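QA checklist item 7 of 12: single-chain prediction sanity check.
[x] sequence parsed
[x] length recorded as 440
[x] structure emitted
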Amino acid sequence: MKYLLSRLLLVLLLLGTLSGVAFSQKTFEEKRKELLQQQTNTRAEINVLDRRIKTYEQRVNEAENQYDQLYKQFENVNRLLSLQDNKIVNLQKEQSQIQEEISITEDEISLRERELKHLIDNFKEILTYTYKKGRTNNLELLLTSSSINQMLIRSYYLRKLEEQKKKQAEQIQVRQQELKKVKEDLQDIHFKNSLILDEIRQEKLKLSDQQAIQRRNVEKIKQESTNLLAELRRIRQQRENLENNFSNLITELDRLRDIEEERLQRLAEARKIADDARRAEEVAKYSTPTVSSYVSDETFSAMERNFSVSKGKLDWPVNSTTVSRKFGVTRNPLYGTRTEHNGINIVTEPAEDVRAVSDGQVIEIMPIVGYGNVIFVKHGSYYTVYGNLSSINVQKYAVISSGQVIGKAGTQISEMGETIFFGVRKNTTNLNPENWLKPR
């Protein structure tokens, strides 16, 4: 009888241990929700790219075979290729997120199957014990008790065993339903994954078709290469114009600041003159500012520090992150020539808001051939340039804040179409803007 009682206590202890097993449902749900949110965000980016792709597809289809129209078609297809390539990157990102979702779901199924197996094995052991010993043995166990107290204790444990057996059966049923639900989720995720993979294949086919169109366009345009030297000179002249304007602007700004510093110094000296009449005359002489909005060296130093530590963290000046022309030396796909680009061209929606990437002061607004209307912003020793603007919302010498709308991007009739030019510079050195903006 002592042996039977020991076995009964061991079974109850085992049941108690298994009933305390913690399921990872909360962790699984949190991970899955996070992945689903990431997928939602990525899909939103893909939808934006889809809209832009459709716009350029329409323009490509409308282009005629004349040289000027063919060149515009080349530019539009080039932007379309950039957009499609960006969409494929986002689709692959979404597919990677779905694969991660599949992985954690499969881990969850594996865990639940192990836990269910433990419950079933334990339930089998209880059933085996009940079958072998039966109710007669339980009655014998009660009747052979040495005292009423011992009989009550044995009766209590036997009743608990029956309750636990029933509870165990209910737990098994619940776990089986939960496992079935997670497996159904996995089937849905696999289906979603197959759709994304199919979309990736379709986009790659589209990309391949557009690349073929682009190759044909290049060949056609190369046949019209009589304007090569003039085109090359025009591009280089535009870049030189921008550089000269920029350098002259900085030189003039430094000159004006030196004059302003001297004026402030003379004004401070004039206020110390003892003679009232002469003091009033000298103060009046130096009271008019040299520039309409003077920013102190301390303020520019703070702007410079803020800009310097923001490398790789600056928000893009527009919602788009599609770069159609990169910084540095680029090879002209039409003629094979090489030219230097001192910023980046970003494909945008027509007349999209253009925002300042950091606190600064507008030091000049001017039209420049090849770049349209341009805004120059000073951030201490750093400068940013925003070109091909269809409209401008700020005034010269205005102090602006990060994220402030300073103008509108180009439209189809703008010099560079629906893009903006964006440049970053430190003193006289042009920097790669993509190194300063948040990763795409």
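[x] summary fact logged: The first strand starts at residue 323 and ends at 325.
[ ] second reviewer sign-off
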